[in-house]
Design a protein that fits this description.
The chain is α/β, with parallel strands linked by helices. The protein has helices spanning 26-29, 52-66, 92-96, 143-169; strands at 3-5, 36-43, 72-73, 80-91, 105-119, 128-142.
């Protein structure tokens, strides 16, 4: 299962055993009240086989299909659903540390989906942006198959977000 991490606003919170039925666990509390969200996608470095438009289209399709049990898409929303793809091409020589003939190239890195919201903190005058939900998955595929793996992971993470959003709504 994908590791779930929480940002600054709810870091370190754990689900308390024996919580009342219907209570929302801390892992999804930051999603409560989220009604609209804009989608941002960042590749670092760029991946030649994965157009940003394809990833964004697939994510938006999943979110639209889940309505009304997913936040509405609004590019002007201050709340952001941010996908970060950090996958590099590495040769097996780089991974192994020495050269062997017939070495291949692999796409190795992380795909992370996070929800960033504006939050108000005690003692700070203006609202600040905080990660309130986050999930990530490592990718390690042959370079020629890494584009499909990145797209698959982006879809899986978006579906995980929708599932946690439903839990935040109590559905």
């Amino acid at each position: 299962m994908i590791s779930r991490l929480l940002g600054a606003a709810v870091a370190g919170a754990l689900l308390v055993a024996g919580a009342p039925a219907g209570a929302v666990d801390e892992a999804v509390r930051g999603l409560q009240g989220l009604r609209r969200v804009g989608v941002d996608i960042t590749f670092s470095p760029a991946h030649p086989g994965v157009p940003v438009e394809d990833v964004q289209g697939r994510m938006e399709e999943i979110l639209r299909a889940a309505l009304p049990q997913a936040p509405a898409l609004d590019p002007r929303s201050v709340d952001r659903l941010r996908l970060t793809v950090a996958v590099r091409a590495l040769s097996t020589s780089e991974l192994r540390g020495f050269y062997l003939p017939f070495s291949g190239v692999y796409g190795v890195g992380v795909v992370r989906l996070a929800v960033e919201r504006m939050v108000t903190l005690t003692g700070i005058v203006a609202p600040v942006r905080a990660v309130v939900w986050q999930a990530e998955r490592a990718t390690k595929a042959a370079w020629r198959g890494s584009a499909d793996e990145i797209l698959g992971i982006a879809e899986d993470l978006t579906e995980d977000f929708v599932e946690d959003y439903r839990r935040a709504l109590g559905r």
